Amino acid sequence: MLRSYDLHRDEIPPGTLYLLILKTLARSRELHGYEIANSIQRISDGVLEVEEGSLYPALQRMLIKGWVTAKWGTTAGNRHARYYQLTTAGRKQLGVEMSQFERVIGAITRVIEAV
Amino acid sequence: MIWLRELSRRLRMLVHRRQFEVDLEEEMRLHLELRQQEQYQSGMTADDARAAARRRFGNPTALREDSRIAWGWEWFEHLAQDVRYGLRMLRKSPGFTAVAVLTLALGIGANTAIFSLIDAILLRTLPVASPHELVLFSDSPEGGTNSGTQTGHWMRFSSENYTYFRGHSENFKELCAFQSSWNHLKIRVAGAAERPDLAYGRLVSGNFFSFLGLTAAAGRLFSPDDDRPGASPAVVLNYAYWTRKFQNDVSIIGKVVEVNGTTFTIIGVAPRTFSDVKYDRPDLWLPLVFQPQVMSTNSYADDPQMYWLSIMARLKPGVTLRQAQAVVSSQLKQILATQAQRETTQQIANSYIELAPGAGGISYLRVTYSEALQILAGIVGIVLLIVCANVANLLLSRSSAREKEISIRLAIGASRSRLIRQLLTESVLLATLGGALGILAARWGVDILASLVTGGTSIVKDSIDARVLLFTACVSILAGILFGLVPALRSSRIDFAAQVNGSARTRLGFGFANGLVACQIAACLVLLVGAGLFLRTLQKLADQELGFDENHILVARINAEAAGYSPAQTPTLYQALIDRIEAIPGVLSATVDYSEPFGGSTWTSNFTIEGLPSRPPGQMKVHKELVGPHYFETEGIPILLGRDIGPQDRPGTPLVTVINQTMARKFFPGVNPIGRRFSLGSPFNDNEAMTIVGVAADARYYSLRDPVPAMEFCAAFQIPDQGSHNSAYAEDVEVRVSGNPRALPTEIRAALAQVSDSLPVTRVTLLKDEVSASLRLNRSAAEVSSAFAGLALFLSCIGVYGTMAYRVSRRTHEIGIRLALGAHRSDVLWLITKECLILVSVGLVIGVPLALASTRIIASQLFGIRATDPLTFATVAILLVLVALAACYVPARRAMRVDPMVALRYE
């Protein structure tokens, strides 16, 4: 079950893929997988490079959890695409993940900055 | 709640998993294509763009797998895969599948059938509130009334006892009481001119229905106020009676009926599911307080020595049956000690109450058949184990045929656990198929078993219910794992290099297979010994001398009460019937009998002999029978001294009786009993004293097992309305004939109808058939255990054959060498036979102690034979050796015929 968290690359801190997806979806109304990948990359100025395929198992898990819903729609280029949308539970989860992340980052920062 | 919603999403996913695959595929393709397009537009060649897109995306197969795992249904898909594969494998070897499924169906079907009987008879609870709180002060199914003193195990209680226990019930929430017996009622809707109807009624305490937590189907049920002195008489109808008599007419509520001469108001109907707490279901219930009116006797409530009630109670939470029992038993002793010293100290010390769980009510079937059913459950359990051993053996020999397939699977990377799961799936599949077929087999098996065991009463309706199905499912899966596990573990532990290159000569599973066969033989021995003991018991019982001429006596069951005769009219009626029947050619003699031999009812009493001091009541016990004139002549029982009951013994003449030899020997040792007088009860009562006019030879009336008790046969016509209401009428006319008795029933019916055309004659049977019906339980024990032992023998035979055949095929090479080196064919025969004998001997060595231990359980069901009967054991052992030798004959012949040249060239 934890396999999806291993992103096989070091670029994304482990455990933050959900957070990134949730945050990305929170910013827009609905996105399909390719747009999510691009969005993460663009906003991080190309620093965070997701192994793009791993978005999909993660999205499946988020569907099971009920954090996102999906429905089929049409892209600007008139292609069939599955659009993901944040649910109320997802929004709540985003808060949880955010505070968890901040706690960890805060702790790490304190350790690094300690003399 | 969150997990519930999550589960529902997962389930939806399981249903639409094809769609899921398609969606995911399309989503991923879109992603790849868009990325590729982007790269292409940024100036890459088409090939580079595709490669880059793939690189960034990762491994799509792994990701797809990962997404599927996310939904958590991978085990299900594996299972479906395994089942499909398993079914294919089973189809590929139809012979194996058929043998395995059929034997499993027999084994599981037998267990299902027995379980459904056990479920219906032993496990079902009363349809009342919290049945598991209920306890009975005695669960004896006998109904009746005792008067005088009681000692030992108390089955019935006086009104005074009930009042006492109700007032001293620290351990009980509440108590209720009901009549142990029931009453014949004559019922007439008030004002109707019709002849009264006969019905059964039970007297119950006012809180009976509220105690049970029941609500009326119509009207209302009793309240304690209905059971107080001065209450207006009320009855509650049984639902079945309401349907039968009043067609569920609600307007009957509030109507007035005349019951045995007293007017009662119908106040309600009990719920449909509830028939009573006791197996003999009454048609209606009446409050205890109306006992004198209903029974036309004195009030039992005022008589502390009239024991007529059954008591039921609800345990308080946290109180165990044992605790409550200790308290009530010591309370009972206390009551007896403080009372008017009616009982001796010894009697009081021996008195005790045995509380019984009341959840199932008082069941005649449970008490009568619980031991037989438990023995049966043991027998079918052993049969199922033998079946499992057989199938395991088949699987083992098959797994050697599949060694190659399995080694290849292991070689290309299947994990051992996955392989075991696959093999177990196949076994459980086999067992499931067997179970499904077994349920079909059980459907008619239940009827056969029920009629064998209980004599055909349709006690087990809708017998295959959800509980039984659940039981079968569990048994099937357990059996599948039981017989599949070891073969699966073994076959997945293969040296596959040796297998694949064809050089394997493993001795895989040999010890285990032999062990299985030896255990089969041991189990078979246990069943055969059991069956042998039951058969010999049946034979011994059937050979018992009865003491009367049962082959030439016809019994016609009549009911003068239903025809409206009063007790005072009966002597004339019965004499007329006897005279008319004796006029039929071929009839030697006829009489009436108030309770038929082996009819199941007994009437015992203590008695006092004139001129002798009263002895403690326990020692002076006699079985009383009421009989008509020429009784002993008709029954063919020799009169040893004095005379038979005759037509001269009419109302108004001094009371006479004939005693049996046992009574004469026990109570009149060394003296002539003719002319002596005794009276029932104590002390001696001159008004009711009877004079002994004859001594008859002993005859078996009640039981083929127990010794004949002391008996006296009173002339019934002398006091037509004597004793309890229930025996004022003769149960049957008995006719002794000279020729073939089967030719006469129609003539007897016609003769009876000539005398009284309103007299119901329910059936005319040969007494011999009635006696043999009393052996039903013994006969069915013998039949059922023989059938299952035969099945076990057959299965073990297959087991021995299979193992020996397998061994011979594995040793062909070795046998070839032996023959080439000069061994004789007879040496080879001995080689194989010896192995078979060793196998059987091991089985016997295991089986004999097992049988000795388990036959002790059935010892109480045996008669005239010890549970360790050496003859039975020896016969069974010899039978097993012979059968095993026969089973190994074919493989042994095959071994003898081995051609050394062929054997050595092989491989």
Question: Rough shape of chain A?
Answer: globular
Shape of chain B: globular
The number of helices of chain B is: 28
Distance between the termini of chain A: 39 Å
Number of strands of chain A: 3
Topology:
The complex is a heterodimer of chains A (115) and B (907).
Chain A: H1 17-27, E1 31-32, H2 33-43, H3 55-65, E2 68-74, E3 80-86, H4 88-113
Antiparallel strand pairs in A: 1-3, 2-3
Helix pairs in contact in A: 1-4
Chain B: H1 2-15, H2 17-41, H3 46-57, H4 60-70, H5 74-92, H6 94-123, E1 134-136, E2 146-147, H7 159-167, E3 172-179, E4 183-189, E5 197-204, H8 208-212, E6 218-219, E7 234-237, H9 239-246, E8 256-259, E9 262-269, E10 284-287, H10 291-295, E11 306-307, E12 309-315, H11 321-338, H12 345-350, E13 356-357, H13 364-401, H14 403-411, H15 416-454, H16 466-491, H17 496-500, H18 510-542, E14 553-558, H19 570-582, E15 587-593, E16 604-609, E17 621-627, H20 631-635, E18 639-642, E19 656-660, H21 661-667, E20 677-680, E21 690-696, E22 711-715, E23 732-737, H22 745-755, E24 761-766, H23 767-773, H24 776-810, H25 812-820, H26 825-858, H27 870-896, H28 900-905
Parallel strand pairs in B: 5-10, 7-9, 17-22, 19-21
Antiparallel strand pairs in B: 1-12, 1-13, 2-11, 3-12, 4-5, 4-8, 6-9, 7-10, 8-9, 14-23, 14-24, 15-23, 16-17, 16-20, 18-21, 19-22, 20-21
Helix pairs in contact in B: 2-3, 5-15, 6-13, 6-15, 6-16, 13-16, 13-18, 13-24, 15-16, 15-24, 18-24, 18-26, 18-27, 19-22, 24-27, 26-27
